[in-house]
Amino acid sequence: MPHALTELKVHTVTKPAGTASHQLEADVCVVGAGVSGISAAIESAQLGRDVVLVDSLPVLGGQMVNSLIGLFCGVYGNGPGYRQLTHGIFADLEASGDLHVNRGHTITVTYDEVALGRWVERRIRELGIRVVLGASITGVERDGRRIAAVSFATRHGAVRVTAPGFVDATGDAALAWEAGLPCRVPERTIYGSQQIVLEHLHEEHQPDREELAEHVHAKAAEWGLVRRDGLAFFFPGRNTAVLNMTHIPAPLDPVEASAAQLDGREQADRVVEFLRAEYPKAFGEAKVRSYGLPGRRQTRWIKGSHQLSLDEVRAGTRFEDAVARTAWPIELHAKVGAMAGPWLGGVILDAGLGARGAFIVFSVCPAVMVLVLFALGRVQRRLPAEAEGALSAELPATGVAAARPAVQI
Fold first, then answer.
1. Average pLDDT for residues 227-232, to the nearest whole number?
2. Cα gap 336→246, rounded to integer Å
3. What residues form DSSP beta bridges with 76?
4. In the chain, which end has fewer C-beta atoms inside a 10 angstrom radius, N or C?
5. What is the pLDDT of residues 42-62, one digit of tens each?
6. Does the structure show a pLDDT above 70 at 389?
């Protein structure tokens, strides 16, 4: 073996003309490696499929890891039974001490985003799932109504993936959009959040949630706060908290989206200044440990064969082909500064599965990670949505589907 100080030879090269793309074939190509895509990829691999998982970020985990959401919602039904509706990852993280259960009218689950990210990476490696990161869609090839291949650009060259099944887990229907398939967009902005993690807190002095929200509302104008309510999710025993106290737009224009990210961080900084001054015992020594990527609630989604209605949610409508369920109230972040209802606590929402044979994924809001399911067949999502019932279902016979309901606390 050469000595460490042996001369290193350096060659001069240029890119060959007409360089071909890197070709990959799989049974399933999952586009998007957030909570929906990870679940789709894991479930597909466990069913014996050969899986390629692609994401535009250079890391796995999507918003659940990189936007610092910090909370699983809808894992349990409401009291007094608190029946657990979603399983899987929770046993592993609970055993390591990286989950905390918060019990109220329902149960929410606080998590450590670093531990969650490593769990995802290890599980993907264990299952032999091939990963392509830092990849953006450049082209989609269709065979009639089905997607046959997708091309991506990466800093290491072009990649082309062919597969009989594709999962659009991008969170904004990017795959369906680039394929020229029908999509839906809200008539006005659904606001997202700039989450941050604070450290050096004194959790024994943390304010009550209702009191904090009321105080933010009363002082927002004085401190220049955009969102006039907000939440601080403390992780017990660690003197850290995830703050959800901002509202940022989620445009699909690339320049505007970049500007919104910078604005979100300015909003977050003003929130920290407010907390230090107004709650010195709890936040007086607070420091920002990390800023998450912008959290997006809803931007664009696939136009489906069934649109969940508000009446169906209110009635707790059940469906014969249901395969999964979750519970969480309706939320709508369509007005900057505040979150609107209607709120429906205690509603159990079913997800249906038929037998069409397309690869389908859905999640109850990638941003909050209520529930994720991957299945072979037709998924009719029975999920909370905005007042008009804006949530997509399956796009028939395309081999691609996705869900992005407007649900986040």
1. 90
2. 9
3. 84
4. N
5. 999 999 999 999 999 999 999
6. no
Angle at CA 315, nearest 5°, toward 309 and 321? 75
Q: Residue written as tokens 């505040």?
A: 338
Q: Do residues 398 and 181 lie in contact, with contact meaning Cβ atoms separated by under 8 Å?
A: yes
The size of the chain, in residues, is 409
Q: Is the separation of the CB atoms in 115 and 93 below 8 Å?
A: yes
Half-sphere exposure in the Cβ direction for 75 (13 Å, CA):
20
**Cα–Cα dist 58/55, whole Å:** 7
What is the bridge-based pairing of β-strands 51-54 and 99-103? unpaired
Q: How far is CA 28 from the centre of its chain?
A: 20
**What percent of the chain lies above the pLDDT cut of 70?**
80
Q: Strand pairing partners for 353? A: 379
DSSP H/E element including 166: strand 165-168
Q: H-type helices in 127-247, by residue range? A: 174-178, 209-223
Look up residue 337 and give its two tokens.
């500064």
* Higher-scoring residue by pLDDT: 77, 357: 77
Q: What is the per-residue pLDDT for 103?
A: 85
Alpha-carbon Rg of the chain, whole angstroms? 22
Q: Strand, coil or helix: what is 270?
A: helix
Predicted local distance difference test score (pLDDT) of residue 386: 31
Q: What is the DSSP string of 337-403?
A: TEEE----TT-EEEEEE-S---EEEEES-TTTT--EEEEES-EE------TT-------TTSS----
Tokens representing 275 are: 């907390």
The token pair at 306 is 């069934």
**For residues 77 and 108, what is the distance between their CA atoms, to the nearest angstrom?**
10
CB distance 239 to 203 below 8 Å = yes
Q: Where is 151: in which H helix or E strand?
A: strand 146-154
**Considering Cα of 309, then 33, then 74, then 269, what sign does the dihedral take?**
negative
Q: Is the peptide bond before 342 cis (omega within 30 degrees of 0)?
A: yes
Of 308, 313, 382, 389, give the one whose Cα is nearest residue 344.
313
Contact call for residues 101 and 109 (beta carbons, < 8 A): yes
How many Cα atoms within 13 Å fall on the side-chain side of residue 222?
A: 10
